[in-house]
Design goal:
single chain; mainly alpha; 0% strand; globular
Length: 446
């Protein structure tokens, strides 16, 4: 009965059963991000908005680290469930949970040790250093909680517990929204207060996730004792299977941090207000991006399970549905965002310059969403089936290698406008590469 969702339920229904809770949790996370940006913007201090925007790559980096154990572990566990190797799946889950905590503590140590040079590399200067430092310090302190949150939220879905994964995300985000104004305004902590609220929200979510695994799961575990299977610690093979998918997944988010840093660097000559506008535009851009990410990766357990079970017919049905649905969703969402761009940017900051430039930035970002949807589904497929090479190639391209090459070229050819259009062009080129990779995969499974 517990495998019926993965084996028998019609593909559209099964896909949406797993994906919709992910999308809903993404929407709540999105609302938190919007509210967080709004509260920070309410201070009316452009340097504070810019200062927190400069530190966003650090937060993104932690999400990337969480993906090593969250998406890497989920990929392996889904395939193990498809192959009916439940004991090894339980061991994998326990290992990923505790490895994420240990890794997070190491990240905290390194970030605090090298705080000043890292902030300098991020672009903090005399006008933004105070705000950047306050936000950075508390995000660094809460690294373990932030990284851990990405692990059980992904692993729970491998057993079909998408609603429990959704609830944990909602719980953390709602706590965050409530705590934001208290720390920022009531306690007068400014940018540091926003980071404190973020960390506490993640701690609360982590506590619920641990409870959910113990209470609702029959085939997952967070017990230290379950890391040993038949008296043996996780073998090299298991750890390698996690890392070869988890690291490319992590690189995807690390590339996002890289993209933000490089974009800020290329925008810096045009003024601090352009960086502040881009910070808001990128947050708003997450409306489309997170919805698409939720739908793409919500189906990951379904893809991984059927690949592990060698159910080629059902796997093809899943992929066909995913690509068609994602393309349609991307077009509709992008059209809406472009139409209302000035009003959405103006909601966060009533500054004529920021509204004008932010709306333009947002529209350029939305131009590539159809191509990003193709890349997202393709990346999810590579991660789900253990195609490490394909996952790695896509992870370093869209916001990494291809983006920086396009950014350098377009900024030289078209200046400010070239910087803004670079992401859409990189999306197009990456989508073309993704289709080549998936075509090769489909030939292979035949």
């Amino acid at each position: 009965m517990e495998n019926a969702l993965f084996e028998k339920v019609p593909v559209p229904k099964a896909y949406m059963t797993l994906a919709l809770p992910v999308v809903f949790s993404m929407m709540v996370t999105l609302i938190y991000n919007m509210v967080d940006t709004w509260f920070i913007a309410l201070t009316g201090v452009t340097e504070l908005v810019a200062g927190t925007s400069l530190v966003v790559p650090i937060f993104t980096m932690m999400i990337a680290f969480g993906d090593i154990f969250g998406l890497g572990g989920a990929s392996l566990i889904s395939r193990l469930f498809g192959e009916k190797r439940d004991a090894e799946a339980k061991q994998t889950c326990a290992f990923c949970f505790w490895a994420a905590i240990a890794f997070g503590l190491a990240v905290t140590f390194m970030l605090l040790l090298f705080r000043t040079p890292i902030l300098t590399v991020l672009g903090a200067d005399a006008s933004t250093m105070q705000h950047s430092s306050g936000y950075y310090t508390w995000i660094a302190v809460g690294a373990a909680a932030i990284i851990l949150g990405l692990v059980p939220s992904n692993l729970l879905r491998t057993e079909g517990l998408a609603k429990q994964a959704m609830f944990g995300s909602i719980l953390g985000s709602v706590a965050n929204i409530i705590l934001d104004p208290i720390f920022i305004f009531v306690l007068g902590q400014g940018a540091a207060g926003a980071a404190m609220a973020t960390v506490l929200g993640n701690i609360l979510a982590d506590c619920y996730y641990a409870y959910a695994v113990v209470k609702y799961s029959r085939r997952l575990s967070i017990s230290l004792g379950d890391i040993r299977l038949n008296g043996h610690l996780p073998g090299i093979g298991m750890i390698r299977s996690i890392l070869v998918i988890g690291i490319p997944a992590s690189i995807t988010n690390l590339m996002q941090s890289f993209m933000i840093m490089m974009t800020n660097k290329y925008l810096l000559p045009y003024g601090t207000d352009k960086i502040a506008a881009m910070g808001i535009a990128m947050k708003v851009n997450m409306i489309t991006m997170l919805i698409l990410v939720g739908f793409a990766f919500g189906g990951q357990p379904l893809i991984g399970y059927n690949y592990g079970a060698r159910n080629q017919k059902r796997l093809k049905e899943i992929l066909r549905f995913a690509y068609i649905f994602m393309a349609g969703a991307a077009v509709v969402l992008s059209a809406v965002m472009c139409l209302f761009a000035p009003a959405i940017i103006g909601f966060f900051m009533q500054d004529v310059s920021i509204i004008e430039h932010g709306a333009l930035m947002l529209r350029f970002q939305q131009m590539g969403m159809l191509f990003m949807a193709v890349t997202l589904v393709s990346t999810c497929v590579c991660q789900s089936v253990g195609n490490a090479l394909g996952a790695f190639a896509l992870s370093i391209s869209r916001q990494g290698v291809i983006y920086i090459l396009v950014l350098a070229a377009m900024s030289t050819l078209a200046g400010y406008q070239g910087v803004l259009v670079s992401q859409a062009i990189a999306d197009l080129l990456t989508a073309a590469m993704a289709l080549v990779i998936i075509r090769g995969f489909m030939k292979k499974i035949k």
